[in-house]
């Protein structure tokens, strides 16, 4: 009986993979033969890139609000330099992992931010901005030597561990499972970028953040709960497992255009990003809270 159950599960898995990836069979870059193993590995190792959701308690001169201001500004820098999405998510991951391990005075926090963006560019980009570009964007608050010294400190502190699963890696796969169109994709990325600014979202692993962002975007677009069996299969999350995170996302979506930190909202209020920020938040998910 156990053997029959295993075979049935294996056949179901192969069917799900075929449905999702059959269109990419001739694309060697899609690595259809290995894609499921790759994402299983990402899921298994995602904790290696996570930080304690209370690490800021060990910082004596910076706080959650300062982190939020820094990341909101870095999202604008990322947009100004026209960098890849992967670069933004990695840069913020580097910042959090570094701050978890090293105490930083507030006047050096922006230096940590631009250095993390520089490192992420070197890892992800084909054409990397110059150190001088980051000095200039920081209004010459730091010198070239200071940036390079911080770069050495960061890579040594992180033991050169740059390749960690970020929410971006899961977003691309999970959007495919959700049969996403451009509208859903842009709204999902708007929601998850809003979450990058929020320190309290560090409590959720990258895969859950990605799945919840897509689920929340679907609820926002269609104004009813929607989470297919295919999405559940490929994300390994049920709708119930996403709800807590999703409700927090709805609250952030609701207030994204207000207050002082509106960088993500302004970015996604442009035609380039499909005016995604103007979508109505899925307030019905907050019912009963």
Automatic annotation (TrEMBL):
Tell me where on the tree of life, at the top rank, the source sits: Eukaryota
Membrane-spanning segments: none
List the Pfam families hit by this protein, alphabetically: Cyclin_C, Cyclin_N
CDD domains associated with the record: CYCLIN_AtCycB-like_rpt1, CYCLIN_AtCycB-like_rpt2
> Can you give the residue ranges of the Cyclin-like domain?
72-156, 169-251
* Residue ranges of every copy of the Cyclin C-terminal domain listed in the record: 165-282
Q: Which PROSITE patterns match?
A: CYCLINS (PS00292)
Q: Which UniProt keyword terms apply here?
A: Cell cycle, Cell division, Cyclin, Mitosis
Give the GO molecular function terms.
Answer: cyclin-dependent protein serine/threonine kinase regulator activity
> Which GO biological process categories is it annotated with?
cell division; mitotic cell cycle phase transition; response to gamma radiation
**Similarity section:** Belongs to the cyclin family. Cyclin AB subfamily.
Q: What is the protein's quaternary organization?
A: Interacts with the CDC2 protein kinase to form a serine/threonine kinase holoenzyme complex also known as maturation promoting factor (MPF). The cyclin subunit imparts substrate specificity to the complex.
Q: What does this protein's UniProt record list under function?
A: Essential for the control of the cell cycle at the G2/M (mitosis) transition.
- Its name, as the record gives it, is B-like cyclin
The organism is: Populus alba x Populus x berolinensis
């Amino acid at each position: 009986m156990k053997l029959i159950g295993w075979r049935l599960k294996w056949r179901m898995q192969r069917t799900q993979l075929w449905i999702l990836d059959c269109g990419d069979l001739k694309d060697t870059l899609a690595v259809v033969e290995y894609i499921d193993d790759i994402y299983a590995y990402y899921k298994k190792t995602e904790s290696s890139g996570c930080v304690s959701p209370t690490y800021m308690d060990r910082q004596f001169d910076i706080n959650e609000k300062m982190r939020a201001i820094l990341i909101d500004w870095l999202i604008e820098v990322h947009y100004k330099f026209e960098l890849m999405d992967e670069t933004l998510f990695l840069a913020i991951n580097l910042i959090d992992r570094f701050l978890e391990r090293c105490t930083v005075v507030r006047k050096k926090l922006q230096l940590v931010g631009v250095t993390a963006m520089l490192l992420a560019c070197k890892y992800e980009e084909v054409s990397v901005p110059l150190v001088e570009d980051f000095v200039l964007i920081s209004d010459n608050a730091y010198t070239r030597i200071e940036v390079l010294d911080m770069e050495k400190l960061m890579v040594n502190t992180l033991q050169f561990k740059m390749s960690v699963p970020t929410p971006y890696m899961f977003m691309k796969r999970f959007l495919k499972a959700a049969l996403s169109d451009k509208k859903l994709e842009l709204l999902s990325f708007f929601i998850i970028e809003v979450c990058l600014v929020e320190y309290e979202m560090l409590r959720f692993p990258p895969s859950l953040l990605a799945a919840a962002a897509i689920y929340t975007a679907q609820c926002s677009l269609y104004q009813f709960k929607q989470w297919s069996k295919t999405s559940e299969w490929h994300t390994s999350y049920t709708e119930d497992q996403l709800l807590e995170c999703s409700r927090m996302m709805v609250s952030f979506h609701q207030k994204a255009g207000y207050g002082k930190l509106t960088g993500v909202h302004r970015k996604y209020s442009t035609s380039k990003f499909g005016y995604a920020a103007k979508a109505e938040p899925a307030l019905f998910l907050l019912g009963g809270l």
